[in-house]
Amino acid sequence: MVVLVVLAASLGSVTSSAGGASAGTVRAKATSWAEKQAGHRENGTSNCSSKINAWERAMGFKVPPCKVWCGAFVHQAFLRAGVKLSPRLIDPDKSYGDAVAGVRKLKRISISQIQRGDLVFYLFRKNLRASHLGIARGKPSGGKLNTVEGNTSNAVRLERRGTKYIVLAVRVVP
User: Fold this and answer.
1) What single string gives the DSSP state of each residue in 31-79?
2) How many domains does the chain have?
């Protein structure tokens, strides 16, 4: 009986590790793809480009009109890694609520737990819970976090922001 309990416990930990590695692989793939998009610009200040339009269509939106696209960028990164997230990601304020509730493959984590491929939400517009999001490129260090973000100054950019500006950290749970 004791042998069976020990065997079951060890199998459970193998399954957990494998599941964690899978989620880690998804996050790594999403981040790698996102980093390769750095420098892509929208046409002027239109929120449109052929790539951005395709990302929004992949979420199920009719384009035009073009939308604010930080969420479409994150959605596309995870889609490329094999995980389809909710189209609600187009609106960081709605996705904030999803993450706090632990739904739609989003799980709230503490800022100290951030790893490569986790999502971070920022608040740059008043009267919302969140107005922008990006993908962490690593763990926070020295009160700063390296990210890759879409729709930052009309382009995909590699950023380094203070962690004090993060209003929510999220892990995608496939």
Assistant:
1) HHHHHHTTT-B-STTSS--HHHHHHHHHTT--SSSP---HHHHHHHHHH
2) 1
